[in-house]
Structures are given as C-alpha cells and as structure tokens.
C-alpha cells in the first residue's frame, strides 16, 4: 500500500527505507524496462575554423609610369578600406544579438585556461580536454560521511557515533560564510551526524538543510573556510545522446575519493520505477539520464559532468545485477536546480496535498471489486482510497474510504502513481481539482482545493 500525504509526514515514514545502491527491488522487477540502452554511439568533435570572407585575385604587373605606380596603390587602398567597413557593418553590426556560439566560446575559453595551466604545470605530459574538464570540476566534488549512533551492548545506554555509510556530494554554491552541497537523500538518511571530506583532505562537519525523498536529493551546509570552487551547471535539456559523460565521486567509500570514470550519455528521460516502502507497489518514477560511465556504490550524490567540466547530473543509482554492465542513472541538472532552491528556502519541496491513502485497483481481486465495492465490470483501473486525513482537501471535498478515483480534471487515473504524478507535476498549491470517483457502483464527481 502506498500513501499520498504531506511531504514532511511521508518523508518521516519512508526516510529509513528510501532506495539506494543496496536496494535491489527495482533491479529484480524492472530489468526489461531499463535494459533498452543506446550503444555504439561515438561522439564527433567539431572545432571552429576561421575562413576568408573574400579572396582577391592577384593582378598582372603593368607598366604605367610613375603616376600609375603612385595613384593605383592609393586608389586600391581607399577602395579596400571602404570594402572592409562595409563588410564589418554587414556581418558584425552592433545590433546583432549574441548567439549561442559566443556563449560556447566563452565556456571553451574557461576550459582552455584550465588546460593551459595544466600544460604549463605538466610540460612533459599530454593534457587532454577530458583531463582539463576533470581538473575544473574535481575541487567541487566531496565525500559525504553518514555517522549514526550505534546501540550499546544489551541496548543499555547510548552507543558510539560510527560511520554507517558514505557517498559523494557536489559543492554548488558559496556565499560569504557557507558553502552548499547537493547529494542524494539515500546517502544521508538516518544520519545522527554528517561529515564532509574536501578534495584537499580536510574533514569538516555538515548541517542538513533539507531532503526530498521523491527526487532523492538533499542539501547540506558547511562553513566556507578555504572552499573557493563551486560546480558550474549545464542545461540538461540541451544534452544529447552520445555526448561525453564523466562521473566523479567516491566509489566504495572516501578512501577512493576523487575517482573518475568516463562514458557517454546513453539515453535521456528514462523513467525508473521506485518502491520507497518495499511493499511491492511502485510509489514513484524517477526521471533520469542514463550513462555507461562506471557508477559504483559511493558514487551516489557525485557529479556527472560534460566535456566542458559542467554539471549535467547528480549520480543516483545503477543496475547492479551480475549480467548487467554499464547502466547507471543521474538526476538531470535542471531538475537538481529546481529542487535545491526549495530545499534551501523551506527544507523540503512544497507540493500540492490532497490527503488520501491509496492502493492500486489492479492489486485487488475481481471478487472484491464487484462483490464488495460494486464496481462495474469494465472498471479495472484506478486508485482505491484506503484512508482520508481529517480536515484535508479530500475530506472537505467529501471523499471517503473505499472510493475509487478514476480521473482528475478529466485525465484518466490508472493507479496511485499516476494520481501522484498528476498532482505534483501539473497542479500547484491552491489549485482546484475535479475528482471523478466510484462509490457503491455509482460514478460521482467532486471538487477539492489543494493545500
């Protein structure tokens, strides 16, 4: 059974059991869905070239006397100057808007500066664009240590604080006093204390700012100290299949921090089913990028960057079956940007609240559907209401236990996941929503105002 409640109460219920690298549920049940990979795609790299706008054919030498030798060069010079001015205003007029290419050149220049510094420092080595991209991004990637209180012998008294797990994180913002780090929710779940290991090797305490179980993201805050580098975000909506994808993190723990693996973006907009409470019912679908860059336990929360060293995703999970290789997933950078803003401001992501507990209709036997719920035989999909929170929008709208919700605003609802996605992706707090449902075999409709 899956519940749709206020984000904070749902988080408290499921935080101890959200998905992680060690969670094999979706690996067992959804291999077919995620096994469709893009393979054998190579990336072509195009370098910009300067071209001549025009070419002047050389003239034959002619005997024209002294006057010709003076006047002709002078006239040619004047005509040439006029042509240059005309061409300049034609192609480079000040009113011409700045193009994306100009932006790309600025980004390339930043990467080229990093590459130049590396070449000067390591004059005896070959410095590639990948090397420069990693050098640019690595100072912003950290290890996140989850410390938990252990039970003392026989459960008497308080136990010691010990490391319970570790993952990775990315510094994305710096102000005068603090630095902010994004990581995965499952990296920090259950933590009594949090610690961050910087690239320099310095270990500092971290404060939890906010978490979101639905997107598996969390924000930490640390004192700025000597931190002076934050990651730059790329636009993940512009990412193409076949682009370079470079993963940076701490696979298998902080002892391997700063490890780098390289691959490509294998697919976009993958929908990966997630079962938060391990009840066999899909609670959510994570919208992720797929990559074949090696992602291992401990890489969670680390950076997936492009060839410019900019963030395209936060590494989150992988398919861990023995017969599966090179299928990892990252939360797109644009999704990360949207979520961390709410986490910074509110400590949670503000989402519309209806106030019902649900289970999927297809999990119920036909005898119960028709015998106890009196549903028509052709009604086989929907969300069965198993509980209504008192004074919630659903309660005020008149919904009751055992109502079967079949549509929202005229859009068909096949299960609780579809209902939740509709609420969270298409509605805002304060919006009205029209709910169609069956009660005792009769189709009814009501309107609720979301909180």
TrEMBL record:
Gene (name only): htrA
Family in the record: Belongs to the peptidase S1C family.
Entry keywords, A to Z: Hydrolase, Membrane, Protease, Serine protease, Transmembrane, Transmembrane helix
Domain PDZ: 352-441
Gene3D superfamilies from the UniProt entry: 2.30.42.10, Trypsin-like serine proteases
Transmembrane segments: 70-91
Superkingdom of the source species: Bacteria
GO biological-process terms attached to the record: proteolysis
Biased composition, class Basic and acidic residues, residue ranges: 1-22
Ranges for region Disordered: 1-54
Molecular function GO terms recorded: serine-type endopeptidase activity
Protein name: Serine protease Do-like HtrA
Biased composition (Acidic residues): 23-41
Transmembrane helix as UniProt keyword: yes
